[in-house]
Design goal:
OB fold (Dihydrolipoamide Acetyltransferase, E2P), six-stranded antiparallel sheet, 16 strands, single chain, 188 residues, mainly beta, SH3 type barrels, flat
């Protein structure tokens, strides 16, 4: 199915230059002159090699039909993650490189969607947001305004993100898994 390049999202599988690619990251770039374009980081489904390519926003790409399974994350085992199909209760492994840095967001019993093409797992779609605890946060610098400045913080999963000045160590926050950014303080 043909789709416009600007509708691509992380986790989609496309066909480009005769190969199947899983979309990892998308960035919309608007230069001062000329039209906007999309920069896409993607991984070859067959070989696992990464590539970057650019499309104009009006270009079309071929999105592949993918079978999606609702699954539950069970555990990590060395270089693979084990998931369970929620309808058949079958367990299967997914290589760690398929998730990349987003594997840090996996939590026990987390519900995810796993995409398959021809019986092979090609992408794992995490929830849009997860709630995590801040383990380390720099102290507030006097005179900083809450609206314009952020400070670095370390999360319980080891990732570092920028958070508003009022966030302290021990605070539970909501983080967007798509771009690994702070969303809001968790409502516990």
């Amino acid at each position: 199915m043909k789709i416009q390049a600007n509708t691509m999202r992380g986790g989609m599988v496309i066909e480009h230059q005769g190969k199947q690619w899983t979309v990892l990251k998308i960035q919309l770039l608007q230069p001062g002159k000329g039209g906007a374009f999309i920069q896409v980081e993607m991984r070859d489904v067959a070989t696992g090699t990464k590539s970057q390519d650019r499309w104009r926003t009006a270009d079309t790409v071929e999105r592949l039909e993918v079978r999606e399974l609702d699954c539950q994350y069970l555990f990590a085992d060395g270089e693979a993650f084990t998931f369970m199909d929620k309808t058949t209760f079958d367990q299967f492994n997914v290589p760690a490189e398929l998730l990349g840095e987003k594997s840090a967001f996996l939590q026990d019993n987390m519900d995810v969607t796993v995409n398959f093409i021809e019986g092979k797992a090609v992408a794992v779609n995490l929830p849009n947001q997860v709630t995590l605890t801040v383990t380390e946060a720099d102290p507030v610098v006097k005179g900083q305004t809450a609206s314009s400045s952020y400070k670095p913080a370390k999360l319980e999963n080891g990732l570092k993100i920028m958070v508003p000045p009022f966030v302290e160590s021990g605070t539970r926050i909501v983080v967007a898994t798509e771009d690994i950014t702070y969303v809001e303080r968790a409502k516990d």
